[in-house]
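Let us practice reading a record.
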Amino acid sequence: MQDKAAGQQRTNLIDRFSDKTGRFTAWLTLLMVIITFVVVVMRYVFDAGLIWLQESVTWMHAAVFMLGAAYTLRHEEHVRVDIFYRDMNPKHRAWVDLLGVIVFLLPLCGFLAFKAWDFVAVSWALKEASRESGGLPYPLLPLLKTVVLVMPLMLALQGISLGLRSIKVLSTSSEGG
């Protein structure tokens, strides 16, 4: 019984982390709109522009997708072939979710993290800055590239939470009959 409570606490902790990250990411979309408006006004009204401001919109856009992935999985808003899943009972859905996490999600996250490691490490080692004159300075570019490594870790954590919830459904349905 204590193991179930500890598992539930871990699941809740992961879910809360994904929710907070998702809410933060949602505010980035508003910031992107505001900055895009400022860039347009600066360019067409004042005939001026800031490259770093334009680049920041692109990087925020990337961050929204990468940091929002775990939140999307948490709320089951990700892309899924729903033809069969929607008609399944909770036990079958739990099996599909658990197998999806084990067979697809966790290996994919491991592969992405493995591939992103060098990409991020090189960026930090080179103290990479924007190629554009007046673009994003160091350490913003490596910091933003670090999100490429953070995304699969957050997604894997949320996948573990989904897996634990699926195991709970399966164990309750097997206990009940």
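A brief commentary: Helices lie at 2-44, 51-74, 82-85, 90-125, 140-176.
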